Amino acid sequence: MSSQTSTLVAEAEGEPGRPGKRRAGRWRYVGSKVLGSTGALLFVLVFNFFLFRVIPGDPVRTLARNRLVSDEQVDELTRTLGLEEPLPQQFLTYLKNTFTGEFGLSFRYRQPVGDILLDRLWPTLLLVGTSTLLATVIGIYLGMVAAWNRGKVVDHMSTGFSLTLYSMPEWWLGLVLLAVFAVGAGPIPGLFPTGGLHSTDVDPSSFMGGLDTAWHLTLPVITLTLAYLAEYALVMRSSLLDEMGQDYLTTARAKGLRDVYVRRRHAARNALLPTTTLVVLNLGFVVSGAITIETVFSIPGLGLLTTEAMDVPDYPLLQGTFLFFSVAVILANLAANLLYSWLDPRVRT
Amino acid sequence: MLTDSLKRAGVGVAAGPIALAMSAGGVVVSPQASAADPVVFTVGIGNEVDSFNPFLGIEAESYEMWALMYDQLITYSPKDMSPQPGLASDWKTTDGGLTWTFTIRDDVTWSDGKPLSAKDVAFTLNRILDGGPEAATWGSYLASVDTITATNPTTVVLELSEPNSVLPLLPMPILPEHVWSKISEQQVKSYANEEDVVGTGPFRLVEGTAGGSIYRFEVNPDYWGGRSNLDEIVYTVYKAEDPMVQALVKGEIDFAEDVSPVQLKALEGTEGINTVTGMSPGFDEISFNAGSVDVDTGDPIGNPNPAVLDPDFRYALGFAIDRDQLVERVYQGAGDPADTIIPPAYSAYHWDPPDDVAFSYDPGRAGDLLDDAGYTMGDDGLRTMPDGSPIGTLRLLARGDSKTSLDTMKYFEEWLADIGIESEVTSMESGKLTNVILEGEFDAFQWGWYVEPDPDSMLSYMTCDQLGSWSDSWYCNEEYDRLYREQHRELDESARAETVQQMQEILFRDSPYLVTVYNNIGEAYRCDRFEGFVPQPDPGGILLFQYGVRSYLEMYPVNECGQSEAAAEEAGATGAGDDGGIGAGALVGVGVAALVIVGGIGGLVFYRRATADQRA
User: Fold this and answer.
1) Number of Cβ within a 10 Å radius of residue A65
2) Distance from CA of B477 to the nearest CA of A (A)
């Protein structure tokens, strides 16, 4: 509501007769958004370092517990992990490394954090990316149909269906699907594997490997798609309902356009705006993975990586993942802002 | 690995669509497996390997993989984990324990064909002795060792500054000098050791990365200890237990490691599956604050309740704990009532408390002992300090990340209330608890330890030297420390065992720890595919993830549960399950997915065209 009034005010001040000023306004808008995002990024960069050091727990003690370890060995481990330096020095090293694209060695895996992130990025992108895409397309369509047939059986069915899935815990849905379609129940044979990303005897980079991975990902992707679906369907439904009372639809109908084109080319276009924001913002969260589904289906993704890094706590790995997630969300946010201004000129200036 | 799967893909294409579907489903072994098919043993595990580099990893999974890839000088017997010949076929000690001479086998070759010699052994040990990252994991096993030399190709001599009874135990994997000498101390910190690994072990790593979810090993056909009956071992990481158990039922895996009691019960009676609850050498305990002090000044720090500083008070509470109920209710039966810090699995060192002092659930006796020690019952139904002041509320800390920890302390709180002592349970994250323990801001907490085959390290955690370091009970007793040093220098096995038992007796009477439960680990396997596992300890032990790799060497494929090795061989068993349905399933699955995608694209194209028409 408040955003609507502010755009109205902006428009009143915008002096529509002078295009030159308008363009300057657009650049100012882009500039301010980029600047804001950069500020957020810098804040995250600093915050990142201290955030994880506040977590209770000493990585050296975690890594050394339950073994025959002398005090000299503990010192040795502390030195190996670079934790013997004073905190300000560690912070400077962290800043220097981050700006040169070095994220250090993971305490737990003793591998460069960048390599580990890359390793885990693909499964996450495949799983959450595909699901988000499917959920968006199917959700928007469902929302459209529901709004257009408001109050009818189709509406009740699709809204009820999405709400049920929305309120269901993802991991539970995953476990049910797993029990039915991976293990088999009654007449249903176990069609899909119980977990993992690929079979042991197939080269994942070959064509067969691709098929094999698709086969492994079918159930988790279906689970996530079902879980994400409702968000899009409900937002799309309500924003389309808002549009349906508008005069321009009456005009379109008066022109003699068929109902389906009125819906698709006029109403849906305008109603897509809030959904677009939602989609673009959610794209930023794609990389953070889906911890519960990664757990149920044993998919080595970024979500799991992060939760497990907490146990140590594995500072370099946590810093790397947190920075990566933040950058993704900030970029998505920026993209949403810019895209929105392009889709809806009213928000510029 | 690449050529292998290419070859398989090629065969699949040649044999037509069915074979294609089979390989898509990841099924190599057809239902009518012929003798030429490899025997693949698939194990479901719950945690990733953190490093294949033996100088870096700490997870149990990593230790298991190193043991497959490399050999150790000394291994552990399946029976009671006592030292047994490994790469060292023999050893002797002279000069009153100051010189140890190991005879190295001369029939061992590295996987790249070069022979193993005493120089490799000396190289590996020296690398650890020199300090640096290598010492962080293994250094303590070389305590008081001055020099390590290979005097000839089959002899390694260790010179010590003072006797160390932990020897001959040297559990570090022996690495090839011709490979590792090229890796500097700096490089070793991040050396992954995942490609072209050169080892002497019974298996070789062919696929897998630290933190990955699949690890594949191939048999070493020339293993000096005899070739395993398996051709391949595959480990698959399951991050949730339920899917892992489902995979076992379905037959995707042959063995499930670390299965919870609830799941194990559900699996009992399932055809073709055997369940095992094995003794694991670890214990859980309730630890008291036996006197937190500043390590430098010796002044008390923290604020322990004066009552828990009194050994008589702590010992009396040992009778207030119903260990049977803990095992039954909190551990769901996966454990045994416990008494001392050296588990009975180590039968040579474990001290069995005699009946008159041993703990049993007896609140009456606990009350009597407290009365005797002066903690008499007040008018308000609460016990008081010997001087008549109130005891106050004991602060019991539990680890929020462990359900058994919290439940144990909840029960303890109730049992304390029964004998007139007030207490309150607080749950916190284990990292936080570590800090609180070091600050001494507690009265009691719940935790546990794994105990290595040599009791030295476990015993050392209770010495005064460890205050502010690994000691978490702040216990310090001169007599105990004297005995600790004595057993550490004692070379006679039985004399040492006697001292170790005496130390447990002291701990038992002083009760800085009230040991509650010895842990068990649940395992389940397809007995219609593999048999012949060797439990450790034998009997009653776990089947895999032991000290050593005996099970992998002894186990063999079968066609039915309980089949003997000879009968299985006659029947041509290959350990392959009836996986025929999965290939077809994969075909259907991929087909459905393809249909959805093609349908989607088709719909999109149609949609676009329709719009274009309308525009025109």
Assistant:
1) 17
2) 20
Smallest CA–CA distance from A171 into chain B, residue:
B240
Among A67, A183, A214, the residue with its CB nearest the CB of B250 is A183
Determine the distance from the C-alpha atom of residue B543 to the mean position of all C-alpha atoms in its chain, rounded to a whole number.
12
Which residue of B239, B242, B248 is the best one to mutate when testing the A interface, meaning the one whose CB has the most A CBs within 10 A?
A: B239
Cβ-Cβ contacts under 8 Å, B600 against chain A: 137
Pairing status of strand B423-428 against strand B394-399? parallel
Interstrand relation of B155-160 and B145-152 (parallel, antiparallel or unpaired) = antiparallel
* Contact call for residues B451 and B338 (beta carbons, < 8 A): no
Cβ separation of A194 and B252 shorter than 8 Å?
Answer: yes
Asked if A194's CB is within 8 angstroms of B23's CB, the reply is: no
Cβ distance A134 to B599 under 8 Å? no
Higher per-residue confidence, A145 vs A207: A145
Phi, psi for residue B461 in degrees, rounded to 5: -65, -20
Q: Cα separation of B460 and A59, whole Å?
A: 22
Shortest distance between the Cα of B368 and any Cα of chain A, in A, equals: 37
Which of B318, B308, B320 shows the shortest CA–CA distance to B353? B318
Grouping H, G, I as helix, E, B as strand and the rest as coil, residue B303 is coil
Q: How far is CA B140 from CA A58, A78, B137, B158, B260, in A?
A: 21, 16, 8, 15, 33
Nearest residue to B517 via CA among B376, B394, B337:
B337
CA distance A333 to chain B (A): 28
Best mutation target among A222, A265, A298, A315 (most B Cβ atoms within 10 Å) is A298
Interchain pair B135, A56: CB under 8 A:
no
CA B141 to chain CA mean position, Å? 18
Query: Quick check: B353 and B392 in contact, CB under 8 A?
Result: no
> Per-residue b/e over B308-346, b at no fewer than 16 CB within 10 Å?
bbbbbbbbbbbbbbbbeebbeebbbebbbbbbbbbbbbb
Number of Cβ atoms within 10 Å of the Cβ of A260:
11
Q: Which amino acid is at A268?
A: A
> Which H, E and C letters describe B544-584, residue by residue?
CCCCCCHHHHHCEECCCCCCCHHHHHHHCCCCCCCCHHHHH
Q: Which segments within chain A are labelled E, that is strand?
A: 184-185, 188-189
Chain A residue whose CA is closest to B10:
A208
- B30 CB neighbours in chain A (<8 A) are none
- pTM for the whole structure: 0.80
Rounded to the nearest angstrom, the minimum Cα separation between B378 and chain A is 40
* In the block, residue with structure tokens 């570090």: B172
Single-letter amino acid code for the residue at B271: E
Whether residues A208 and B243 touch (CB distance < 8 A) is answered with: no
Closest in B5, B212, B237 to A201, CB measured: B5
Angle of helix A130-148 versus helix A153-167 axis, rounded to 10 = 150
Task: Please list, residue by residue across B232-255, b when 16 or more beta carbons sit within 10 angstroms of its beta carbon and e when fewer do.
Answer: bbbbbbbbbbbbbbbbbbbbbbbb
Residue pointed to by tokens 């006659």: B570
Structure tokens at B608: 């676009």
- Out of A56, A110, A294, name the one closest to residue B190 (CB): A110
Closest CA to B440 of B406, B408, B412, B476: B476
| Tens digit of each residue's pLDDT (9 = 90 or more) over A237-292 | 888 888 887 888 888 888 888 877 887 778 888 888 888 888 888 888 887 778 88
Which residue's entry shows tokens 């009968």? B567
Q: How does pLDDT run across B437-473, given as a tens digit for each residue?
A: 888 899 999 998 888 888 888 898 898 888 877 788 8
